Amino acid sequence: MSSIKISPSILSADFSKLGNEIKDLEKAGADLIHIDVMDGHFVPNITIGPDVIYQLRKYTSLPFDVHLMISPVDNFIKNFAEAGADIITIHPEATNDLVSSIKKIKSYNKKAGVSLNPKTSVNKALSVLNLIDLVLVMSVNPGFGGQKFIPSVIKKAKKLKELINKINPNCLIEVDGGVNDKNIQALKNVGVDIVVAGSYVFNHDSKEEAIKSLQI
């Protein structure tokens, strides 16, 4: 069984030196770079926009795993696609037509994902499960880093894996929020493919050791 891929979130990075932080993550063994985009409207925080992502693109060849927590999301898909995102993940609640939004992401030759908040049912992804490349399961309420992992997400991911196996076996499951060396094995056991780790990686004495401890 292959190891889980690690997508460290730069939400926990030092924003005054983001380029170097990303370089360090690549050297430390990260598989992807997770970029949280928040608008202060869909979630109660504001982070970065497409111009910053465009500037960061030159610091690494790792895939940019861009999680859009913005609404209405359709207005900005083109901007983030052209800025250098490789995966664009959106919330069902942020669009009036989820199928159309997914197809729009795909029209730019980008991988498309759907993000499910802790209280959002896996059924919200069913209408596009055959179209998407990834389901991002939030294991905290989106908006801020450093929150505690919600254990019920493990059962949710297991149910999602069963649906994916029936409908679209190529679709990946990613979990974001409070992931650490204490819960990583349980996530792997239910079929999670990628984990987002922000605080755990950046608060560790060694980014490399933190990432290795999750690559089980």
Plain-language structure description:
The protein contains eight helices and eight strands. The chain has helices at residues 18-27, 50-56, 77-83, 98-107, 153-167, 184-189, 199-202, 207-214; strands at residues 5-8, 33-38, 64-69, 87-90, 111-116, 134-138, 172-176, 194-197. With 216 residues, it is of the alpha/beta class.
What distinguishing features does this structure have?
alpha/beta, 19% strand, 216 residues, eight-stranded parallel β-sheet
What's the number of extended β-strand segments?
8
Supply the number of helical segments.
8
| Helix and strand run | EHEHEHEHEEHEHEHH
Q: Spatial order of the strands in the main sheet? A: 1-8-7-6-5-4-3-2
Mean pLDDT: 96
Low-confidence stretches: none
Query: What global shape is seen?
Result: globular
- Beta-strand proportion: 15-25%
Computed structural class = alpha/beta
Rg (CA only): 16 Å
CA(first)-CA(last) distance: 9 Å
Question: What is shown here, in short?
Answer:
This protein has 216 residues and is α/β, with parallel strands linked by helices. It has helices at residues 18-27, 50-56, 77-83, 98-107, 153-167, 184-189, 199-202, 207-214; strands at 5-8, 33-38, 64-69, 87-90, 111-116, 134-138, 172-176, 194-197. The protein has eight helices and eight strands, in the order E-H-E-H-E-H-E-H-E-E-H-E-H-E-H-H.
